[in-house]
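User: My collaborator and I are trying to settle a disagreement about how two of our proteins should look. Neither of us wants to argue from intuition anymore, so we agreed to look at predicted structures for both before our next call. Could you fold the first one, then the second, and keep them clearly separated?

Assistant: That sounds like a sensible way to settle it. I'll keep them separate. The first protein:
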Amino acid sequence: MNISHTAILFLLLLLLLLTTVTTLNAFVPLEIGPNLYEFGVAVNKGSTRGVVVTKCGPIGKQFDCILSLLMDFTESTSFTMFAMLVINALSGESTSVEIPGNPLGGVIASNYASLLEDREKRFYYAHFGATFYQFDAQLMNFTFYQRTHNGMAMALTMDDYGQIWGGTYPKCGVFSFNPNNTLLKDYGFVYNQTWDMYPRSIASDDLGFIYIGIAFTKSQFIALNPKTGQYYPLIDEVNRLDGTGVLYRDLDGAVYGNQGGSSIVYKMYNGTMISNVTKKKTAKVYLAGSQDYIYRYFQSGNFLQDFNAVDKTFVIKLSNGTLLNRDFTYSCRGANIMDMVATPDRNLLIGATSFPMTMFSLNGNPVQSLQNNPALDQWNTIKSVPYDSNIWIGTYPEGRLLSYSPSKPYVYTEIGNNRTNPVFIGTSSPHVNRPSCVLIHPNMEHVLMSGKPAYGKTGGGLLIHNRKLQNVIVLNHTQLIPYHSIYSMSSMKSSNSIIICGTTTDPGTGGQQIATESELFLFDLSTLNVLKRFKPFKNVGHYYELFNCPENDLIYGYTDTRIFFVYNPLTDSIIHNRTIDRIFVEQGPHSIVSHPKTNETFITSSTGLYKINPVNFSFILIFKPNKLLMFNAVILNDGFYYFRAGTEVYGYKLFNATFIDPVNSVIGMKSSVNPMKSGDRTVALSVGVANKFTLLIILLCLTFVQYLILA
């Protein structure tokens, strides 16, 4: 029998494809202490906070380049701008230039505004961590940086004289920088409110006056005279609207704007303002924008069609129309982990990160593997329970509720497409845009989601999904506890419709706090009424978590004031409370967990892992971490108690935990070793792992090839 070489080659390629498709990132965890293991960085990717294209290198040796400010996450400073990435737009070769000057961390650490000067397109400007930066594309380095008042720029602009101006969050500060003499002038804070302000737009008229648009609780325009340093608000208090003051510079030399989405147009010039003007918009273009800004036009005529910092790829459309696809590289410390839970069967860990927005999973024994998938929005809070096969997710910034089936393949969520997994259920914005809690009620009829409201708003709502009717209703804060947001919820075994809720008095981001003390309250799902409100503890800002303990049917909870308490639904009373060590939380706290085999209850504290005595509620120390800031609590059937610290997942060997070397567990396949670094430690091996079905297909293919050759 004559068999063509083409047929044999086709079968061999099919064999190669099958073995490639079944490749997983499997690894043996690294033991870093007695029974303590490091499972590695959950999502080893950074995110970009501003991208521009220009020419890099000295004159005569310049090349088309991409400049991208990169952000990752560290325990000490939270989100961190760690490098300016310089990429050769033709070759993909990249260099990371470290951010100098030790910018401050915390809430002002991220970059929210970028500006590329539009004359030579040589200098790129940014301000974050209370530090102003100038990056020189010719020298491919930072050539100026200087500390300012405490803040980060929310908007940058250039005046007609070439000076750079910025307005900063959270206290509305202003600074200017003169590139000619590298003089930075700090005007300090120019407006005072009781809430954090977002100066999301800034503009200069042709006389040099500076105008700043304020968001979110109340709109406002601020004028600043650079010659005298005088500054003042332009909108009378009674005329301020909720929302954002938006500005732009027009080609006629004046600045125009509106506030709170109103159609009324304001004209600002020479430090004064008139309202109700009619003007066709002819905006002057600046190469500036927010954290998502991308400037795509090369001076050579090429065009940056796509830039993906997560996948580390970009596409250039050359001036002749040809598309150029390139990869690039950078190293980072990983993304911030928002939440982690066990799947309902307790065999997988499911988690999510922010910046980039990514879902990750970790399977237990016999072979550990971390996998990443892109996520719709930021998964703020994730919830699963043993009595429901689905996992439920609350996302920021639209307050979306998603339902994920871990037994089915992951398919990126598309709104309106019920074939995706997770699938979109409903949205609750503006009443909830930053979810903190999802409750899967054991009546299997309701799934609830709560959290803080939209930017500038005060008082969060409650999304209620009726699974039988397949509908969603959203209550606002006036139908619950006015000016509070529900931060935690729990069902109670004693009732099929009454739940207990814990609130926070925090407003939405950039909003104004009105209520002074958080509360607990009982809510009836059958009538949608608040039954009882009570304040068992003073000065509480957050009731972080409420947990229905399966050992005794009591409700455990803890507060931001470090009070652990126990609520008895049968007696409707707090039966225990005491001061505890700090508990580290993200926006959707999950620090209490039950054992999958015994129902014993554990809690993750800043000082270690504890078992909670179900009778006297004492904390029994299981292990004490060594310089690890522990978040979350997940126990899988593999015997590990998982938690996260920084960007990494760790596991404490709680019971019956064993490892199978993934190299030796692969039947008939040769493994390839590719170290994945976490700090200075190798934490993973990349190996091919084939399931039984795939192995069967491979053996059949090999048998068929042999038959064809011998026939």
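The second protein, kept apart from the first:
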Amino acid sequence: MDSFFDLNGGTTIKFELASKPIWNGIKILNRDFEKVFDQIDTNDNQIRLIEDNLLGEEEYRIDVLSKDMMEVRASDDLGFIYALLFISSDFLNIKPFWFWMDQKIKQTDKIEVPIQSYQSGEKIVKYRGWFINDEVLIDYVSQQNDSDQFWDMAFEALLRCGGNMIIPGTDNNSRKYRSKAVDAGLWITHHHAEPLGAEMFTREYPHLDASYTKHAEKFQELWKKGILEQKENKTIYNLGFRGQGDYPFWQENPEYDTPQKQGALISELINMQYEMVKKYVDNPICCTNLYGEMMELYQEGYIELNPEIIKIWADNGYGKMVSRRQGNSNPRVPALPREDGRHGMYYHVSFYDLQAASHMTMLPNSVDMVNNELHHAFTKGANDFLIVNASNIRPHVFYLDVIKKIWEGENINSAAHAQAFVAEYFDGADGVAECFSEYPKATIKYGEHEDDQAGEQFYNYGVRILASQWMENDQETASHYVWATGNVGFNKQIDYFRQACSRGLESFTHLYDTCNRVSNTLTGEQKTLFDATIYLQTKIHLYCIQGSLDFCEAYAYFVEKKYMSAFLKVGLASEKFADANKEMRNHEYGIWKGFYANDCLSNFKFTAHVLKNLMGYIRVIGEGPRFFYWQRELLYSEEDRKILLLTNIQNHLTDEELLTLMKEDSGDDKWRDSSIPNMLS
């Protein structure tokens, strides 16, 4: 009697009247067959897809009946898709993040599948998925390549993780890629600032004030259009009313100047939107984000919602279920349900706040904290819905894999997850798990709370804010940095930044040394992947820390009126941030060519540019308006420097040329901030 079904190049998939999502799943599995199996000595056998209405939503059963027949049973599209992807992952060994982690697919002639049944597992969250947000890397490389490959691979990875819901991009992209996500079998939901997935009012009516009071009918027409465009799709309609950006609506409507007025309008409009959806959609699923100002109004009792609407609670962008910091305000109100009903979460493994978050690097907090926060929220009833901000995916795979395990019901810890992740994507190579485990321990603690750990924005926005204030007026506080330091003088803000970065210098130098040691033990594709993931992110932090400390040292020299030294240190700082950008670009290869070119949010290269401008400012202060003193210091002999019969005999040097000379002579203090008398004054 046969005991195996031989998956091989001759295996075919049969299904009558397949929907677009099921055909998409079949196409993926057929592609994987081509990757895995050679076409020599094929054995024709069959996988037959059978509709079985005794199975529940998203459930499947795979019955391996003989060497010639495997039956896949499900009652809906996602059930079949998950079954096909189970065959791909568990039998063909195609990993959930195979594309994003450069998995090398091993070829064989056949794979023996035991004759038995396989049943789908349960998920502890009903609606679970990703928000492809701040997707500036994916969007840019897709445009450059004139290809949707990265979007297709994002949707596939989500399905492989057991996800069933997506916000397919931000603003225009959310509508551009909506049909592609629907064809993949996913539920669609919406950005909290784009109610009902409708077009933004200001884009549709650019010459009108975005005031509901003035233009109620136009708002309602946009909402109606959004509903009708999606009524045939699996849609979870997001209800709400915010401004025309990610901010409260009353910034554009100042007449709503009390919490009572604000809450009353939001309540009225959300409940109106819900009734509009019910008019056009049978048994609709709707949600609303209690995010930012919405949560505070709801917690204080100013917003009343229909109980059928799923209330979505958000973390603060750093993985902690408290209200997010907005500007300099950080009340940290617990963001968890207090009453029964339908509740869910919006959770970030990537965040963009122009302060201290992580967009180009991983979440700076531990797997243990993420696990504890999510499971605690589940105990409070927030398990109807979980949307995860995944941004550009590749920098965040480690934590997206954490979320996958959690919504599958696992309780995980940092060390065990690192070991499992490395076993899956690095073949368990020695030392790699240690690097992933140590990463959150190395990140800078910038505040007093458990989750106050810094991503790469801490350095880039810290330097840019402080450099701007330095050039504007360093006798006044940098108002945009009060969130970190409180309302203290500029010099104390610099001290805070220096002390924080000094702590990170030690920890990231240690992690860098560990990564370097591990990298030197690896070879081939394994080394390439390691260097392009955890080692790259470690370098980004370390180089930015080094640049930030040079920047702080430059200010100390500036205060002492040692302007040449200040100029040099700012130049070195600029080069460190440029080095962080170069490291990213140096780790583009194959399909990743150009992936980091449009780092326009954290934007290391722009931080380097701002510091170049600061060099020019220091030069103006230090040797303006004549601009030949430093040149004479660096190029002229000691006996010629103070003889000014001719001020200069060569063109004025550029800032870059001066910096190059200073670096060459930096070991020799003969020029260091010496004072040339202004004999022409």
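Some points you might bring to the call about the second protein. The radius of gyration is 29 Å. Residues 676-681 have pLDDT under 50 and may be disordered.
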